[in-house]
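Figure-free illustration: sequence to structure, shown twice.
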Amino acid sequence: MRRTSILAFAAIVTALLVVAPVAGAKVTLAGGSTTLKLAPLTAEALTLNGVSVAPINPAKVKGNGIAFPITGGSINAVSAAGTINHSGGLAFRAGGTRVALKNFRVHVGSKRAILTAKVGSGRLTVLSLSLANAKVVRKGLATTVKGVQAKLSGQAAKALNAAFSTSLFTKGLGIGSVTVKATPAEVEFAGGATTLALDEGAGAALGSLGIAVAPVEPATATGAGLAFPITGGKANAKTFAGTVRHSGGIRLSRGGTVVDLTSFTINVDSDPDLTALVGGQRVSILNLDLSQLTASVKKRQITLGGVKASLTAAAAGALNSAFSTSAFTEGLALGTATVAARAR
């Protein structure tokens, strides 16, 4: 596929933006590919001048383009600043001369976007990338970007002309268009809510003790339970290991005694739990049982259900002390949580 060439590099930039919607922290990439389609006139010019272009493994011909596997990188979800890395590359050949461009890397800054490649022992700026007409489409957590336009850099034109003893390559030469399909290694949460359906036994026990349960704004009481707005967090896109942060909380009160549990953070790791601010201190208040976890992804919505929540020893001790009782015990089933989070 000799007509596919420098455009491959452009694709990479798209991938970068693809994964960079509107977040504040950096998000890492797990996979996907960038596919380049050479502009017909550029492809024809290369062919007429005896210059062939072929993929370097594991890049491969795919349809009418060449696909370059995405191996990683990270970007800022707000500014799109960052890098996206690829394996494989392109080999240009004319007569007995061969130039290999490998390990494409897209750099997106505040003022410009470029694509670089490894050439020999150094790294060369190959393309300047325009995203003015790029179109972003999201399906699930993956992102596809089309319409990225790439132009040859002066540095690359000079190097290719010198290698092939020609004047064919010029700065600003239109290389073509690129399509990027990027898969994130992690997702950042932009909103949604976690709902806790109180266990009937726990509700009855609290009622028998005269302890009232109410949401702390902006948490609300709904038909499904207490809903706590999700304010942020980040999780692995496959295992969902990570954190989910919330606003609002729960107020437990009896007479003049009031205990506020606020600013919940769900931690999904080897020992899943939920922590809260209690009197200015962050305390682990709930153990989370994920053995019956159900997970679904629809568009940018991630729903995790069937999470069983029970009191930790620390929370049980604090509540017993506050309300002068011994009714609260470690492992007391509090309810079932459902996380319905929107990914950026």
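We now fold a second protein in the same way, so the two outputs can be compared directly.
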Amino acid sequence: MSSTYRLQGPARCLGRLPLPGGLAALAFIALWQVLALCLGPDALSGPVPAVQRLIEILGGARYRPDLIATVEGFTMALAISWIAGLAGAAWLGMRHLAGDVAEPLLVSFYAIPKVTLYPVVLLICGLGLPAKVTFGVMHGIVPVVLIGMAAIRNLKPVYVRTARAMQLSRLDTFFHVLLPAVLPQFITGMRIGFSLTLLGTLIGEMFGGGRGLGYMLIRAINLADNDTIMAIALLLLVFAVTANGVLGYIARRMAGD
């Protein structure tokens, strides 16, 4: 009995570990180390120097203004992308004519490389935070609108008929009928908008920011500082994967999985 218990205990513990994610992380680190050894430190920094540099960046007072600048710009851009995107999705999804007109325009705008529009953004907003936030919103808001609008328009007609039978207003119909039904799809759009808003914010810092992780990254590229490049890339990777994992978990819980 005791030997059986000793075997079952570790088995239960192993069953609780996120093995696919853990194995993927280990494989990524191993591949990174192999590539660093093959290419050399002048071409690619290894995991250990990158982590050491990342600890230095996170703990150093001289880098704190850059971290705060990125967090500030990204938070503002993400809030605008999510709030305005969901509001636009709700409005266009409940009005078929407006949605039919807006959808091809949004798809066409989404297909345009946003870097080509950055000179226009700089002329309108100038350098600094406004341009960075605008560029982040330009990247992140469109998928939120398109996915949310499609979720509302693809709902079963019984939801709308039930709301009409209960004589609910448009606002009550959205909050009490449509929103609970499309919330998992909304969160999916928010996940995509999250990643693209982060990308747009960083690109804005690279091209026109005097502060931020994007500015640090472009400066490190110009100086061939591979440790800083890989440290910032690792930080952004961990942050994006963690945030998308949390949003994905919420979406699965909302869907009842």
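Summary for the second example: The mean pLDDT is 82.
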